[in-house]
Fold this protein.
Amino acid sequence: MAQHRHIEFEQGWSNIQKGITKLIRILEGEPEPEFHSDEYMNIYTIIYDMCNQRSDYSQQLYDKYRKVIEDYIIQTVSPSLREKHDEDMLRDLVKRWDNHKVLVRWLSRLFHYVDRHFVLRSKIPIPTLDEVGLSCFLDLVYHEMQSTATKVVLALIHKEREGEQIDRALMKNVLDIYVENGMGTYEEDFESFMLEDTASYYSRKASRWIEEDSCSHYMLKVEECLKRERERVTHYLHSSTEPKVVEKIQNELLVMVAKNRLENEHSGCCALLRDDKKNDLSRIYSLYHPIPQRLGRVADLFKKHITEERNALIKQADDATTNQLLIELHNKYMVYVTECFQNHTLFHKALKEAFEILRSQGGSEKLFL
């Protein structure tokens, strides 16, 4: 550029302030003509000149940039949010966050030369204009509103779990605010509370369902819960939340009640084997497969049931038919191993051990290897 004019700070800032006021009015939906490129270039040039003259106002412009954003938040954004509640507050929070990002983007362009001339050349590291702008929202809006926002979001998740329709797009937009301010922010300020709430919710459900439902109906409910929670992640939770929320559900609905459900005399694993409920057994296998210790208990019950059937068969059959009946029993439960338990080694081992005593007694060893 050519020789720069000298601009006194108050004179220059007055012109810059007019442009900023217009931008804010546009964001607030006030009647204003479009912000044209010549207006942008005029402000940019004023800032450029104020940074390149003998009286370098870079520091003052940097400080004013922050104050403009802080004043807008304190005078307009925060009062608007404080007067709203529940979903209306969430909607306004999303709107204010979106507007804030637009404002910071525009101001960072107008003040771009301050970044180049002052921030990047500073001997002591200082935040860039983008960082300053976003930290203003974090300090003045997010830190005040996040606790309330988290409670509202958790209440909406509870409603959805109970079968009510909620605005999933709104939920995603709100939670994106947490994520965009850092995964640590999302995990500490939202996810930790959501996981705690999830554990409490499903603990209550488990207590009620084990009183109301057979093992088969209970496992159907667990399967549906896991499906819905995974779906919930795809719609509005961060993908990293899925394994954590699944683990909470597995612990409350499967691990903590394993003995009650799996060993129930009337509807547990042995009853399902007795009644040839292959679909239900497949579901139990699928649900407990990710939980090795509890899957081992399913295999133990499988072995226990086969052993009891084998012993009953030996007592009832005569010597001439015992061998053939044992072969049929073995083949019957091999179908369970392949169809219900997906050829898992635990169940092959359980089947093998259930017939082990026959081999040790010199029985039909080759038939059960």
In short: The CA atoms of residues 169 and 236 lie 7 Å apart. Residues 129-161 form the longest helix (33 residues). Residues 257-367 form a domain with the 5 helical Cullin repeat like fold (CATH 1.20.1310.10). The chain has a mean pLDDT of 92.
